[in-house]
Automatic annotation (TrEMBL):
<dbReference type="GO" id="GO:0009002">
    <property type="term" value="F:serine-type D-Ala-D-Ala carboxypeptidase activity"/>
</dbReference>
<dbReference type="InterPro" id="IPR036950">
    <property type="entry name" value="PBP_transglycosylase"/>
</dbReference>
<keyword id="KW-0328">Glycosyltransferase</keyword>
<keyword id="KW-0645">Protease</keyword>
<feature type="domain" description="Penicillin-binding protein transpeptidase">
    <location>
        <begin position="340"/>
        <end position="629"/>
    </location>
</feature>
<keyword id="KW-0573">Peptidoglycan synthesis</keyword>
<keyword id="KW-0961">Cell wall biogenesis/degradation</keyword>
<keyword id="KW-0378">Hydrolase</keyword>
<dbReference type="GO" id="GO:0006508">
    <property type="term" value="P:proteolysis"/>
</dbReference>
<protein>
    <submittedName>
        <fullName>Uncharacterized protein</fullName>
    </submittedName>
</protein>
<feature type="domain" description="Glycosyl transferase family 51">
    <location>
        <begin position="78"/>
        <end position="249"/>
    </location>
</feature>
<keyword id="KW-0133">Cell shape</keyword>
<dbReference type="InterPro" id="IPR001460">
    <property type="entry name" value="PCN-bd_Tpept"/>
</dbReference>
<keyword id="KW-0511">Multifunctional enzyme</keyword>
<keyword id="KW-1003">Cell membrane</keyword>
<dbReference type="GO" id="GO:0009252">
    <property type="term" value="P:peptidoglycan biosynthetic process"/>
</dbReference>
<dbReference type="Pfam" id="PF00912">
    <property type="entry name" value="Transgly"/>
</dbReference>
Length: 637
C-alpha cells in the first residue's frame, strides 16, 4: 500500500505543478488579451474622430503670392501672411537635399512602417541614462502628421493619435509621396514653409540650384528653425549641426569624404533681409493695385503668380542712373530724384525709381519736428504731385495745334503785363531777353515763357488746354480752370511724373493713348489665368498734331539758341524728342523725352520743396535722363 500512496502523492504533486503552469499561462494570456483589448479600445476611442490621411491631397496649403518681372525669371517680392510657401514636386528637389534631410531627420525612412521601433528604443535608453527626455524618435511621417492634423500638446492621447494616423498615412501613400508632402510643409523659419520657400528666402535661388553645403544648412534648420536662424545669435550652432549632417551623409555613403569636407569648408552667403524686395517702389505700387482688386488675405494664401511689365535690366540701369546723378546733384543742393520709363506702344511701365535709395536714411541734419526731410527714401515721387515747369508746355501747344494753328503761327515775344495795373503779372523768359515775333516752333523749342502764355490765353484757351491734358492722361488737374490761370503753361498745375511720361507717350504713338500698365498677367497656383492686361489704344489726338509736337521737340537747330548744339537732349544716331522743365524758385527740375519705342522722364528736387541752387532742369535732371537713354537705346531699342 505504501508504494501506491507514494505514487499517488507524486501524481498529485505533478498535476499541481502542471495546474500552476496552466494557471500561469492563463494569467499571461488574460493579461495579453486585456492589453490587446485595451489597445483596441484606445485605438477605437482615439481614432473615431481623427481626420482621414487619405484626404491629405485635399489639404489646402497656404501659398504666398509672388510678383515677378515680365520674364517671370526675376522674383521681385512675395506677399504672405504667416506662411511663405511654394509647392514643388519631389522631382524638382535635388538628391543632395533629400539625402541631407534623411540624414538629419529619419535615416530609416524607406525601411520602417511609419514608426521607427529601433529609434524609439535608442531614444528611451538615452533618455533613461540622462534621466531627462532629450532624445526624440519621431519619423518624417510622424512629423508630417503632427504638423498637419494635431496640436503640439505632449500627452499620451496625442501620441496615440499620431501613431494611428502615421500608420494610416503609410498605408495610403507611397514613401516618395509622403516625403514630397513633408518637404513642402516643414517650417524653416523666417515664415518660410517648404524647401522651395526656404531656398528662395535664405539663398535667393530655387531649390533645384542649391549646393551641398546649402542643402545641409536647410536640413539643419528643421530641428529648431527659430533658434538656428542664420539671422539670429546662434549661427555657430547652425553650422555645427550642418557639419554633423555632412558627417552623417559621408557615413551613410551619400557623399564621399572629400565632398563632405569641401562642403564643410565652403563659405555660405545668406541673402540679406533687405534683398527680399527688388524694385521696391514699383513693387509696392503693384502691391497696392493687387490688394485693392483681390484683398490682402487672398493674396497671402492663394499662391498667385503675378507677371509685371518691369524690364529688370532697364530697372537696374534706371536705379544706377538716379543714384549716380544724385551723388553729383548734391553739389546743387538737390538730394533726391526719380525716373519712370514706359513703352508707349503698349503702356507697359518698363522701369520705376521712386527715390534715390528706398533703403537709405533721411538726411538727419535736414530733418526737424514738423518738417519733412530734403530726402525721404520711401515715398514714390513718380506718383506724387509736383509742378512740372515748362515740361507742361507741349500739352498746351498740342491744344493750340488741334484748334488749327501750326508751327509757323507767329506770336510776339515782348514784355507783357498779363495782369492789371493794380495786380500786375509780368513774367520773364529764362534768359531775360525778348525776341519780338517768333513762330510757335521757336517758342516751344526754346521754351519761351511769354509766347507760351499767349498761346495758352489767346490760341488754345485755358479750358481746352486742361481738357487736352486730361485726354492725354493727366488726372491731377481737377480744380476749376481759373484756379490755375495763365501760369498753368509754365507748370502752375501739379502732375505726376508717371502720368506726364505717359502723356508724352501719346506724341510717340501719333495720338494713341494707352494707360500705364504694371500687371501683365496673374495666374493661380494651378497656372490658370485669372487676369490678363493687354493695352487698349484709344485715339485722343490728331496724328498730325502729335507728329508736329515730335518734330519741334526733336529740332536741335531751333532749340540751340537756348540749349546749345550738344545738350543732353541731342543724339547723333537717334531722333529723340525731349522737353525740360524748371519750376519757380528752382524747386523741381524735369526732363521728359521719347522715341517711338520708349518714353522716359526724370525729376530732381527735394522732398520738402526746399529750393535747389539756381540750375535748370536740363542741368540737374538732364544727365540722369541722358545716362539712362544712352544705354537703353543702344541695347534695347
Amino acid at each position: 500500500m505504501m508504494p501506491q500512496r507514494k505514487f499517488h502523492r507524486q501524481i498529485y504533486k505533478k498535476l499541481g505543478k502542471l495546474g500552476a503552469f496552466w494557471a500561469f499561462l492563463g494569467v499571461i494570456g488574460f493579461g495579453l488579451l486585456f492589453l490587446v483589448s485595451s489597445f483596441l479600445f484606445l485605438f477605437v476611442y482615439y481614432a473615431k474622430d481623427l481626420p482621414r490621411p487619405e484626404k491629405f491631397t485635399e489639404k489646402s496649403f497656404t501659398q504666398s503670392t509672388k510678383i515677378y518681372d515680365k520674364t517671370g525669371e526675376i522674383l521681385l517680392y512675395e506677399m504672405y501672411g504667416e506662411e511663405k510657401r511654394e509647392i514643388v514636386s519631389l522631382g524638382i528637389v535635388p538628391d543632395r537635399l533629400i539625402k541631407a534631410v534623411l540624414s538629419a531627420e529619419d535615416i530609416n525612412f524607406y525601411n520602417h512602417f511609419g514608426v521607427d521601433l529601433k529609434a524609439i528604443g535608442r531614444a528611451v535608453l538615452i533618455n533613461l541614462k540622462l534621466l531627462k527626455p532629450t532624445q526624440g524618435a519621431s519619423t518624417i511621417s510622424q512629423q508630417l502628421i503632427r504638423s498637419s492634423f494635431l496640436t503640439k500638446e505632449k500627452t499620451l492621447g496625442r501620441k496615440i493619435r499620431e501613431v494611428i494616423l502615421t500608420i494610416e498615412l503609410e498605408r495610403k501613400y507611397p514613401k516618395d509621396q509622403i516625403l514630397e508632402f513633408y518637404l513642402n510643409q516643414v517650417p524653416f523659419g523666417s515664415n518660410a514653409y517648404g524647401v522651395q520657400a526656404a531656398s528662395l528666402t535664405y539663398f535667393r535661388k530655387p531649390v533645384s540650384e542649391i549646393s551641398l553645403e546649402e542643402a545641409a544648412v536647410l536640413a539643419a534648420l528643421i530641428k529648431a528653425p527659430s533658434f538656428l536662424s542664420p539671422y539670429g545669435e546662434n549661427k555657430e550652432d547652425l553650422f555645427q549641426r550642418k557639419d554633423a549632417i555632412l558627417d552623417r551623409m559621408v557615413k551613410e555613403g551619400f557623399v564621399s569624404g572629400d565632398e563632405g569636407q569641401k562642403a564643410k569648408e565652403a563659405e555660405i552667403s545668406f541673402a540679406k533681409v533687405l534683398q527680399f524686395i527688388q524694385a521696391p517702389h514699383f513693387v509696392l505700387y503693384v502691391k497696392d493695385y493687387l490688394e485693392n482688386k483681390y484683398g490682402e488675405a487672398f493674396l497671402q494664401e492663394k499662391g498667385l503668380k503675378v507677371y509685371t511689365s518691369l524690364n529688370w535690366e532697364l530697372q537696374k540701369l534706371a536705379e544706377k542712373s538716379v543714384q549716380d546723378g544724385v551723388a553729383i546733384n548734391k553739389n546743387y543742393r538737390a538730394f533726391n530724384a526719380s525716373l519712370a520709363a514706359i513703352n508707349p506702344k503698349t503702356g507697359e511701365v518698363l522701369a520705376m525709381v521712386g527715390s534715390a535709395d528706398y533703403f537709405g536714411d533721411p538726411l538727419p541734419k535736414e530733418c526737424s519736428p514738423g518738417k519733412n526731410c530734403l530726402f525721404e527714401p520711401n515715398p514714390n515721387v513718380t506718383v506724387r504731385n509736383r509742378q512740372p515747369g515748362s515740361a507742361f508746355k507741349p500739352l498746351v501747344y498740342a491744344a493750340a495745334f488741334e484748334k488749327g494753328y501750326d508751327d509757323k503761327t507767329v506770336v510776339v515775344d515782348e514784355i507783357t503785363n498779363f495782369g492789371s495795373p493794380s495786380n500786375p503779372y509780368v513774367p520773364q523768359n529764362y534768359d531775360g531777353l525778348f525776341r519780338g515775333p517768333v513762330t510757335l516752333r521757336q517758342a516751344l523749342a526754346q521754351s519761351l515763357n511769354i509766347p507760351s502764355i499767349k498761346v495758352l490765353g489767346n490760341l488754345a484757351g485755358l479750358e481746352y488746354s486742361i481738357q487736352t491734358a486730361q485726354k492725354l492722361g493727366i488726372n491731377t488737374l481737377t480744380k476749376p480752370a481759373l484756379f490755375y490761370g495763365l501760369p498753368l503753361v509754365l507748370g502752375g498745375g501739379e502732375v505726376k511724373l508717371l502720368e506726364i511720361v505717359s502723356a508724352y507717350g501719346v506724341f510717340a504713338t501719333e495720338g494713341l493713348r494707352l494707360a500705364p500698365i504694371t500687371v501683365i498677367k496673374v495666374v493661380d497656383s494651378d497656372d490658370n489665368i485669372i487676369e490678363e492686361n493687354i493695352g487698349d489704344p484709344k485715339r485722343v489726338l490728331d496724328p498730325g498734331v502729335a507728329r508736329m509736337i515730335t518734330s519741334i521737340l526733336s529740332d536741335n537747330e531751333t532749340r540751340s539758341p537756348i540749349f546749345g548744339w550738344n545738350s543732353p537732349m541731342y543724339f547723333d544716331n537717334y531722333q529723340v524728342a525731349a522737353k525740360t522743365g524748371t519750376t519757380e524758385n528752382y524747386k523741381d527740375g524735369w526732363i521728359i523725352g521719347y522715341t517711338p519705342s520708349i518714353a522716359v522722364g526724370a525729376w530732381v528736387g527735394n522732398n520738402d520743396n526746399t529750393s535747389m541752387l539756381k540750375e535748370p532742369g536740363v542741368v540737374v535732371a538732364g544727365p540722369i535722363w541722358r545716362s539712362f537713354m544712352d544705354k537703353a537705346l543702344v541695347k534695347w531699342f
